[in-house]
């Protein structure tokens, strides 16, 4: 397997960057189950924000709210300065095409080759793209994840780590400004998990993406995060760098780092 070109483990700094994504007092309930209870967070352009939390804390619900897959009960979700909670579906789709989503399992179409998976995504996003542009974009995306040789393979022929890489290639082929990663290293061995984490950094640097990374994997968080937020009972209970939170005086916060 060809490896993506490595970058030094140096995260992009974003201190002076503009806020590209913001949640204000977001609430979401399902019947009597209050999942998000006034969630507030913001992400700066070019930043990797990692969100940690125990199972059932609302991480996955929050990320689905971000792309309008779940409608919030209260609050604002501003992306590129626009409150998406007030948008009609057509206008919401104009925002969605600027956002990439890497699902836990890669979410590849099993009946399509790697080439066809990437081509389908690109043509759905850009219907008027030429054949030459499609070929060029596919090769660039596969080069970025170090899997040029997998172009004509079926998903069933790929390992779990390779499927994640191809899923990421399919995400970056549309050149999204924001990428949402949902448990990007789940189910992978430690070595492959590290490779995926370093690839997230590589994509951040090469494509200047802004990312939210939902993970239980503390090694992934340490490698990828510019900043970490910890979600508890539907609200953010702690925020800071990996080093800051690891030394927190709060025993519950420190428990993530043991």
Automatic annotation (TrEMBL):
Alphabetical list of InterPro entries matching this protein: AAA+_ATPase, ABC_transporter-like_ATP-bd, ABC_transporter-like_CS, P-loop_NTPase
GO molecular function: ATP binding; ATP hydrolysis activity
ATP-binding in keyword set: yes
Chain ranges of the ABC transporter domain: 21-258
Keyword Mitochondrion in record: no
Keyword tags: ATP-binding, Nucleotide-binding, Transport
Pfam families: ABC_tran
Stored SUPFAM superfamilies: P-loop containing nucleoside triphosphate hydrolases (SSF52540)
Domain of life of the source: Bacteria
Classification via PANTHER family: INTERMEMBRANE PHOSPHOLIPID TRANSPORT SYSTEM ATP-BINDING PROTEIN MLAF, PROTEIN TRIGALACTOSYLDIACYLGLYCEROL 3, CHLOROPLASTIC
Name of the protein described by the UniProt record: ABC transporter ATP-binding protein
Species of provenance: Flavobacterium aquariorum
